[in-house]
Amino acid sequence: MEKGGGAPSVGGSYPQKNAEILSSQYGINLFLAGLLLTFAWAVHAVGISKSHLLSYLITLMLIQLLWMLWYLCRSCTQRRLIRDKDTHAGARWLKCGITLFAVITLILDSFKIGYYIDFSNCLSPTEGIFPVTHAVHTILQVYFLWCHAKDIIQSFKTLERFGVIHSVFTNLLLWTNGVLTESKHQLNEHKERLITLGFGNITIVLDDHAPQCNCTTTTLCSIFSQGIYYLYPFNIEYHILASTMLYVLWKNIGRKVEHHQQHKTPFKFHGITVGMIFGLIVLTSTIAIVVVYLIQIGGSKVKSELALTMFYLHAIFVLALMCTAGIVALLIYRLEDRSLDNSKNPARKLDAELLVGTAAGSWLLSWGSILAIICAQAHPKYTWYNLPYSVLVIIEKYIQNLFIIESIHREQEKVNDDIKTLRIVTISRGSTLSLTPSYKEIYNGTTARDNGEVPCLFKGTICGRENDGGGGGAKEETSQDKSLVMHSASDFSFYSGNSVTNNKRRILKNIAAFLFLCNLSLWIPPAFGCRPEYDNGLEEIVFGFEPWIIVVNLAMPFSIFYRMHSAASLFEVNCKT
């Protein structure tokens, strides 16, 4: 293990590159072993039980806990040293978001502990140990990310690469486990609803992993078992956010950064009222649609068809608005001539790759639906609404990705220093300075000059003299007045141009705020069980039940993550604009 010192030599870069390759291969193998173990449990493979999977996950979490404790202790001993930081990584709003998801994850762990206590007679001890370990892991990991997400590690780099990549893939496996558990629950509910839609030719066999014993307190067991599945979406988002933040930390190990001042971009509600109002309307209506959908779907064939029709019409309207907003934003960008920031930035690069990569999940489902509509022999009325919905999903993500990626790569507008420090001052007979009220007063000639004072523009130096009176003073005053009017006209022209720029910026901020709330709205339906890809039924007839269910279960987690990641990116765009 080497400690960071000065700039690495050419030869010294090879061990670090090898360490990066070795650590990435270690992480991939760690993930593949866990993935196969998860799959074996899901398909009821002989000799593989849930306790084996949980034991593997517990071991990974304990190893990560040991590494994080070692890193925190070492950081405390070296806290006086000045360390490089990646100002783009670990934004405060991102830390707040992961903290919120972590709190809900802790509630989920408490529900699992309660569930284990009620079924302790027939559950493996690992099912009780897992939520306790996971809770400790969650608390320490959130603290670690709050304190060290921006770190650029320059010492013990080889060891740290393995520690960080271990943490990345541990979170990815925990995410996979959560996705699989939640998907199996959704699949069981979907199978029970299929008969109501008239698809009686599909054999319904529930994939049940329920305990084979009675609960000690029936009411609590029902609360715990049902509540767990409503909390899983937040647990899933927590682990994927943690893995992305840790991945950026891994990419930053040994990185050399330029030391420059990073401008803080706080979020402000001022100027985004219109976007917030329309976004909140979409959010409220989406929640109402989801509630009605979950109540109606599966009640009867007529109610299910009405629920699907209602969902598609609402989604078509929202997606059409989002496409329009995105196109307007891109047109504004085309009217501006601003360069792009192409500097090396692991966090920004990962954001762009995740947007395009996770959008592929929705695109896969949309193209599957389009193909099913084209090839199907019978078309229930509600399936025709699926066609424009699927087309709009493809187009909307295409436009939104373009808008977000261009936004995060655009350089922030820099205001000319001479304009920023422009001040209008007056010099009185006593040689004291005072600011004039406004451009308008100057342009109209109604300044402190009316009180016998001589106005002048302050640009780094004081331009003006005391008025000594007499004819010479009168000429000097007249000359200064003419100069003042010329400067004021120029400043007024700049002010008008700047007003146009501010209006464009205000429109962009409102669009970003609107799209932010729309993405949160579209995250809610699939995250909480409103999935027409399951309930439509047409795709299952064309592709077959099992193949289509596999496609949905693989693509849906990426589709859900896309919406949350897009919302996070749009929040950043709003702060930056």
TrEMBL record:
GO cellular component: plasma membrane
Keywords per UniProt: Cell membrane, Hydrogen ion transport, Ion channel, Ion transport, Membrane, Transmembrane, Transmembrane helix, Transport
Alphabetical GO biological process terms: inner ear morphogenesis
GO MF annotations in UniProt: proton channel activity
Record flagged with keyword Ion transport: yes
Subcellular location: Cell membrane
Domain of life: Eukaryota
Transmembrane domains' residue ranges: 26-47, 53-72, 93-117, 129-146, 158-176, 229-250, 271-295, 311-333, 354-379, 385-404, 511-529, 541-562
Signal peptide as annotated in the record: none
Membrane topology, record value: Multi-pass membrane protein
Similarity comment text for this entry: Belongs to the otopetrin family.
Protein name: OTOP1 protein
Source organism (scientific name): Nyctiprogne leucopyga
Primary gene name: Otop1
